[in-house]
């Protein structure tokens, strides 16, 4: 009986190896971008929020001079660009992952044997593309509508690139980590944006760094956003503006170190706690 | 634990190609509630096995342990030769899973969804073929979040069989489907079976189990109370027949393990040799199932 069944079996006994984690990750980037593009709320929020903020603050405080030779718009552009990076990475990923887990999308990926790395690649790839579009839009509007002079020195754009890239990586892994720790999509949907707003205020997005109380700056220094903002100022403001920072300099070394440390911490937390399903 | 459990087959059992699923003494608790309470189960390669049971009986939990998505608290489990708790990618690639929950869907169309998930498999079934098999060809360009509940179930089934699994888990696959879709699904399962796929399905529907399954296991209150071919299910219970006849204008009924003897007496007692309104019925699958479940639930109370 058993022998007869085995003989007539047409399911292949040996099957080809499943596609690589990278191949599935690539497919997921395409999927994530497509889903992003079809979510009007996400698109408008990610792309329009920084531009609208720049328009409001630029119009209200546009004539104020922050430091000798530096207008408010230049100063604020750095802060809002850093905020944009945090929104498209940390906030977008954190809320989306919690939702996808609750909806059972992740349970399907688990039963398909999807490597967690492929899922992370998909998220990171989507964040890279959406952040690039967002920043391109923001800088174009700043340069054309608000007469902000963008840097011409290639060295500054190199700084811009590594600051943004580290910010994206840190935001993505921390978003993934936070979504797992929080669990419910509802809590993630309210908690993460609320946290992001507080972080913006204490990290000097809206205020000048040296105006913040010392304790507040120290709290902010523990999180990535302050360093992202400071890194952006070092790109868009003249070096003379560095005196306005708490440390009196741009602190590139420390910025890279803190952001890299958060990338590592986030990755370790993800690797140890990531779940496809909510705990039963 | 291994020492105390009765192990009929020695070392060779691990290499037995006849078993796609082998479960011994499976236990799963949520807090202090035991939802699976010592289940033993064998599913042979190439068969369609139906787990039948009421809500909360432990069907889904059992299947989820076998799929490797839920930890167990006790017992030995082997699925396609591996312990599901340690199964890797290659092992998962040999399984197909249609879970009970159906997501609310997203902004992708049916075809986009199938094309996307095709990229997770080494040798996926072509999308057009899948669409035809589950009857979604006409809905291929519809967004998943605009599908009806039944259509979404069909998409789930398509995703479950896309990777040409050796073993397919179907957890209440036809819930929410209309009768036409259910028949179409049955045909799909029959086709899979003919190609040698092993299927383990859970269902509430007795007709579905009777139609599709080679063997049925009735699970109730976390225990497997009987395993048999649909026609042999509850053989003990079925041996009892109900004899009914008309006597002095009123129906009378006798339940007996020996209906022939009752008939003989009836005929002998009748002056004309005729018995008006005579029927002899045996319990059908549903009667048997209800009795099995009631007995198991009574035991645990």
Automatic annotation (TrEMBL), chain A:
Chief site of localization: membrane
Residue intervals passing through the bilayer: 43-63, 75-98, 127-146, 158-179, 191-209, 256-274
Signal sequence segment: none
Family per similarity comment: Belongs to the ABC-2 integral membrane protein family.
Gene Ontology BP term (one): response to antibiotic
Protein's membrane topology: Multi-pass membrane protein
GO cellular component: ATP-binding cassette (ABC) transporter complex
Coiled-coil regions listed in the entry: none
Name recorded for this polypeptide: Transport permease protein
Subcellular location as annotated: Cell membrane; Membrane
Pfam family, one: ABC2_membrane
Keywords of this entry: Antibiotic resistance, Cell membrane, Membrane, Transmembrane, Transmembrane helix, Transport
Superkingdom of the organism of origin: Bacteria
GO molecular function: ABC-type transporter activity
Annotated ranges, domain ABC transmembrane type-2: 41-277
InterPro entries according to UniProt: ABC2_TM (IPR013525), ABC2_TM_bact-type (IPR047817), ABC_2_transport (IPR000412), Nod_factor_ABC_transporter (IPR051784)
Keyword Membrane: yes
From TrEMBL, chain B:
GO BP term, example: response to antibiotic
A family per Pfam: ABC_tran
Family: Belongs to the ABC transporter superfamily.
Cellular component, GO annotation: plasma membrane
Organism in which the protein naturally occurs: Geodermatophilus nigrescens
Name the record gives this protein: ABC-2 type transport system ATP-binding protein
Membrane topology recorded in Swiss-Prot or TrEMBL: Peripheral membrane protein
Compartments in which it is found: Cell membrane
Primary localisation category: membrane
Keywords associated with the record: Antibiotic resistance, ATP-binding, Cell membrane, Membrane, Nucleotide-binding, Translocase, Transport
Stored PANTHER family: ABC TRANSPORTER ATP-BINDING PROTEIN (PTHR42711), ABC TRANSPORTER ATP-BINDING PROTEIN NATA (PTHR42711:SF5)
GO function term, MF aspect, one: ATP binding
Domain (ABC transporter) ranges: 21-246
């Amino acid at each position: 009986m058993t022998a007869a069944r085995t003989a007539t079996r047409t399911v292949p006994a040996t099957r080809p190896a499943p596609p690589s984690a990278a191949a599935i990750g690539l497919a997921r980037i395409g999927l994530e971008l497509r889903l992003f593009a079809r979510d009007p709320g996400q698109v408008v929020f990610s792309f329009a929020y920084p531009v609208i903020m720049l328009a409001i603050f630029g119009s209200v405080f546009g004539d104020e001079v922050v430091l000798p030779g530096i207008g408010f718009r230049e100063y604020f552009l750095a802060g809002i660009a850093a905020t944009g990076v945090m929104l498209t990475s940390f906030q977008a990923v954190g809320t989306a992952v919690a939702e996808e887990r609750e909806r059972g999308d992740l349970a399907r990926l688990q039963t398909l044997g999807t490597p967690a790395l492929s899922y992370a690649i998909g998220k990171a790839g989507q964040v890279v593309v959406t952040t690039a579009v967002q920043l391109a839009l923001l800088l174009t509007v700043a340069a054309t509508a608000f007469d902000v002079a963008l840097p011409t020195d290639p060295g500054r754009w190199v700084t811009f690139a590594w600051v943004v890239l580290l910010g994206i990586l840190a935001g993505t892994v921390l978003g993934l980590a936070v979504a797992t720790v929080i669990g419910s999509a509802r809590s993630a949907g309210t908690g993460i944006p609320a946290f992001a707003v507080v972080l913006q205020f204490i990290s000097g997005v809206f205020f000048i760094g040296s105006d913040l109380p010392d304790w507040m700056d120290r709290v902010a220094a523990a999180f990535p956003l302050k360093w992202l903002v400071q890194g952006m100022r070092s790109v868009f403001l003249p070096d003379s503006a560095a005196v306005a920072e708490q440390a009196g300099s741009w602190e590139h070394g420390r910025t890279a170190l803190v952001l890299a440390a958060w990338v590592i911490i986030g990755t370790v937390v993800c690797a140890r706690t990531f779940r496809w399903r909510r705990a039963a | 634990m291994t020492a105390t459990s009765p192990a009929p087959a020695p070392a060779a059992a691990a290499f037995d190609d006849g078993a796609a699923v082998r479960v011994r003494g499976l236990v799963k608790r949520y807090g202090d509630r035991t939802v699976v309470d010592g289940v033993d189960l064998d599913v042979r390669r190439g068969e369609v096995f139906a787990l039948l049971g009421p809500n909360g009986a432990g069907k889904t939990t059992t299947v989820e342990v076998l799929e490797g998505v839920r930890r167990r608290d006790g017992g030995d489990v082997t699925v396609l030769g591996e312990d599901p708790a340690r199964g890797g990618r290659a092992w998962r690639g040999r399984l197909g899973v249609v879970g009970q929950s159906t997501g609310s869907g997203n902004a992708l169309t049916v075809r986009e969804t199938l094309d996307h998930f095709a990229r997770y498999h080494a040798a996926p079934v072509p999308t057009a073929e899948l669409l035809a098999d589950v009857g979604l060809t006409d809905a291929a360009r519809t967004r998943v979040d605009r599908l009806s509940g039944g259509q979404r179930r069909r998409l789930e089934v398509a995703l479950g069989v896309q990777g040409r699994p050796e073993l397919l888990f179907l957890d209440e696959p036809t819930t929410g489907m209309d009768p036409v879709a259910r028949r179409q699904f049955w045909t799909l399962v029959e086709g899979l079976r003919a190609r040698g796929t092993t299927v383990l399905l859970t269902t509430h529907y007795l007709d579905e189990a009777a139609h599709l399954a080679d063997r049925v296991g009735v699970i109730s209150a976390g225990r497997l109370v009987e395993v048999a071919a649909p026609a042999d299910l509850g053989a003990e219970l079925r041996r009892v027949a109900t004899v009914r006849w008309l006597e002095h204008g009123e129906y009378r009924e006798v339940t007996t393990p020996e209906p022939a003897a009752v008939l003989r007496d009836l005929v002998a007692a009748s002056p004309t040799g005729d018995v008006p309104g005579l029927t002899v019925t045996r319990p059908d699958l549903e009667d048997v199932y209800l009795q099995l479940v009631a007995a198991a639930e009574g035991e645990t109370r």
